[in-house]
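Progress report, Aim 2. The chain analyzed during this reporting quarter is listed below.
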Amino acid sequence: MRWDRFFEDLEDQLAAEWEAERAALDSEAERLRVSRLALRERLVAFAQSAASPLSIELRDGSSLEASVTSVGADWMAVRPLRAHGAAESAVLVPLPAIRSIGAAQGELLRSARPTEPESRLAQRVTFGFALRDLARRRAAVAIGVVSGRALSGTIDRVGADHLDLALHDPDSPRRSAAVTAFRIVSFEAVAWVRVAAAVGVVAP
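Predicted structure tokens for the chain:
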């Protein structure tokens, strides 16, 4: 019986060592996976889980309390919380404009887990493509630039890394008489683009 007990102890010890080694390997594999995790993947997870509104700080110094609705190749669309009965709007944010994101701990942890497979189209729809869609529809927009200013008007055309904006009152349609000036705006200077929800945003 003593030998039986001896071998049982050895088996228990071996099993414990195997379990510890497997846990160490799993932990290392998880650290490696997280080290390769991109911000875009975290945002996709927020969109897929319909997370509570996030606190998003942008490089122009502004902040948004908003839910992520969709994620393109290098941008995201968010729905801000309604304030003072204001009409709902959608905001496009280029990913480089994001400075930080505040979320509840549980949602933060969930966003670091593997996500559901997403449409391959979503990975290909660029910020420029989304802006061209707004230009095609002659949608009135407000654009926040990194200097802290907000420009209102209509996007006339979109180049490879910039856009042409006709400035006019946000409540007025784009007509020659209403346009007060024109601006070329570099994509690098854009912190956010706000459009009325009724206009809609190209869904990646």
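The chain has a mean pLDDT of 85. The chain has four helices and ten strands. These observations will guide the mutagenesis work planned for the next reporting period.
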